[in-house]
Amino acid sequence: MRKRFGIDIDGTVTCPKSIIPFINRAFDMNILYEEVNQYELTPFVDVSEEEFAKWFTENEPTIYKGSPPAEGAVNVLKRWKNNYDLFLISARGPHLLDVTEEWFFNHGLTFHHIELIGSHDKVEMVKKHKLDIFFEDKHDNAVMIHEKCQIPVILFDTPYNQESIPNGVIRVNNWREANIWVANWIKQNQTKCEAAATFN
Prior knowledge:
This protein is an alpha/beta fold and 200 residues long.
């Protein structure tokens, strides 16, 4: 049976640095990606939370259209598409579906299912779709998905997710490393299945 991969979009499929140039231009700042040591961006900007939230909501489509893919993401996802079912699960709001699908198609990427849930709580989606593994950049999401769903979670290393992680959350630097880990994991699963079949 084909494995089902749950994949976050922003900071995972897209480059985690994507939003920084937009913020710097809009607020006349010079934030460096390496300095962004937490997921919430409001503390790095000289405006109120309300003003920043308003700016972000108004500019979301432009930011998403202009975000480059993370290094190696396109090649790996194209290869995976043939062997695994790819489920995109994102905190983006459902109204951004057209922009999101267009971005994937423009980069030559297809998928089996997409859910824009408008929330960072992805546990229910993981359970609903019976996902076998998840790919994420947000630290607390990764830990929660692993602990509540008991599946491995690949966490893409960024300056804003440096807190400690439990054993079932695997930190990688890029998609190449993720691909290597997944290949080994699949191999181990096949070996276990073959051993169980022989035993029975």
